[in-house]
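Shift notes (night). Ran F-box domain, cyclin-like protein while the centrifuge was going.
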Amino acid sequence: MNSKVVIKRTKHERDKDFISKLPDALLTHILSLLPLSDANRTRVLSKRWEDLCAFLPSLHFVTPFYNVSRFYWRIEETLDIRDGMPIDKFYLDCTKCSYCDYNRVYELLSSVVICKVKELELKFLDDRKVVRFCWDLFKTCNSLVGLTLNGEFVLDVPKDGLEKWNLSHDLGKTNRSFDGRHVPSNYTACPP
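Came back to this:
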């Protein structure tokens, strides 16, 4: 004998969104298990979901081809919403736009330092402009354990910064001071 139990639900019960009723901490944890691109897509689900990605432990931003000022505004808004909450990893890719506002990037990095960032990855185009890495922001940032710079950067790092960050391990003895010298593309440094 083959019998099925059919439970009929009202339209109201079918239309209920049970997942949105979960606490923010649980939803954020669920989103952190998704690839960042998929987690970001959940912003369109409802007003409540719009800001949940701001609380993810890793933040990933890639400049669009258009509307760059709105892009910077969105990053600022995300960091403001976090209100100093620590960041595990912050990724900023400025290679897709024709113009990069380095002053705004500096302001964003100031906010990221306040959020006690652990890993930082910055990506700029090699052929546009040499970027001066703002060492003064990071010299007192004790939370930073990984730094990846992609593009043309100039580092003004004092000798004690070299010791803290082990920045000279791939560059040889000729570039040990870094004062105003170029750093090769795709460079990664970590404290010892």
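Residues 122 and 149 are 5 Å apart (CA to CA). Helices lie at 11-15, 24-32, 36-41, 47-50, 68-82, 102-114, 135-138, 159-165.
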